[in-house]
Amino acid sequence: MMQLLMPAFILAFSLGLGIAALVWRAQMLDMPGHRSLHASPTPRGGGIGILAGTGAVFLFASGQPVPLEGAAPLLAFTAAMTALGLADDLYALSGRLKLALMGLLCLMAAGWTGVPETMAVSQNTALPLPVWIALPGAALFLFVAVNAANFMDGSDGMLASALIPAGLGLAAAGLATGVLAASLAGVAVAGGLAGFLVLNRPPAQVFAGDAGSLCAGALYAGGALAMAVEGLAVALWLAPLFILPFLADVLLTLAKRAAGGRLSLEAHREHAYQRLVAAGWSHGQVALAYNALAAACVIAGLMALQGPDGAVFWVFWGAAMVLSGLYALVHRRVC
After folding, report:
1. Distance of CA 60 to CAs 53, 173, 258, 276, Å?
2. Strand (E) positions, 112-269?
3. Residue 144 and residue 150: Cα distance in Å, rounded?
4. Tell me, what's the pLDDT at 234?
5. Is residue 40 a contact partner of residue 33, using CB atoms and an 8 Å limit?
6. Do 257 and 263 touch, CB atoms closer than 8 A?
7. What is the pLDDT of residues 232-271, one digit of tens each?
């Protein structure tokens, strides 16, 4: 398997970098707005190379004598989300229409991929999941994960900072459980974003755009769902754990805005990473902080996967408490 994943990573990296460079030369500019953390027009759409890299990775794998169950719905979901993001980049879709289409795509992807039959606290303790709960639950995970990637893509290097470790974690977990489609998805996420990061590192020369962020989010979430469906009982905790720094920032910000009567589809600058930049942290410092948190979550999750039964469940909730405390600290000190 490792002999397959290394060339796959190189393919994804090369196309991620190559297409980001082409987009940079094309100069499709992202103009600064009231939510933006950048001050000058910057080319966007560089993240579309992640989709090209994903296609190349799975095409390469299809020529090898390996099982690829779950690949078709994963690729279709990723391509559809990328197309939606590109349409938003080009035509500035309304927020309601974009969210409605995302919800529909997530529901369709969950129905095609399949859903977990149980919610496991451990390998030996699990609650049965009837399809009328599992299907909307799987769609909700896809929806939240994709939106988290989209919402958090607002600072130089931010998208790659957390999703590269998460992709590598997904690749390792897929290997441990024999779900190759999940491993290939993780490698494509990590490799594509690593190539894109060459031009997106602070100060960014190109942005991912909605096409890139939705692509990366869909690829990770779709791979994680495939892993859960194909037999890893604790994937329902492991997959969100790997991207918990993003999920915590997004969900806690939504809760904070809702409590203050400010929940809307309008853009804002209330995420913790935006507060840190406004407080004087550089884009590079913020990206490194989220990268370290994501790496810690991935390492803890993979160690728990090899540890006592039920360890992943407790590590997830422990990490959630730590990140909630850090979020509260940022808002208390910065606001």
Report:
1. 10, 21, 46, 41
2. 118-120, 126-128
3. 10
4. 74
5. no
6. yes
7. 667 789 999 999 999 999 999 988 888 877 766 566 678 8
Measured CA to CA, the distance from residue 279 to residue 294 in angstroms comes to: 22
Token pair listed for 268: 């804002």
From residue 151, give the alpha-carbon distance in Å to each of 6, 265, 266: 30, 11, 12
State the pLDDT at residue 216: 96
Beta strands in the chain (DSSP E): 29-30, 42-43, 118-120, 126-128
Q: Give the residues across from 44 on adjacent strands.
A: 207
- 């909730």: which residue's tokens? 317
Distance of alpha carbon 144 from alpha carbon 252, whole angstroms:
13
Query: Tell me, what amino acid is at 35?
Result: R
Cα–Cα distance for residue pair 51/70, rounded to 1 Å: 17
pLDDT of residue 118: 77
| Residues 260/147, Cβ–Cβ less than 8 Å | no
- Can you tell me the distance from the alpha carbon of 8 to that of 302, in angstroms, rounded to the nearest whole number? 22
266: number of Cβ within 10 Å: 10
What is the rounded distance in angstroms from the CA atom of residue 257 to the CA atom of residue 70?
37
Cβ contacts of residue 132 below 8 Å, gap of 6+? Answer: none
Contact assessment for residue 189 and residue 82, using Cβ atoms and an 8 Å cutoff: no
How many Å is the Cα radius of gyration of the chain? 19
Q: What is the mean pLDDT of residues 35-60?
A: 75
Token output for 324: 């909630």
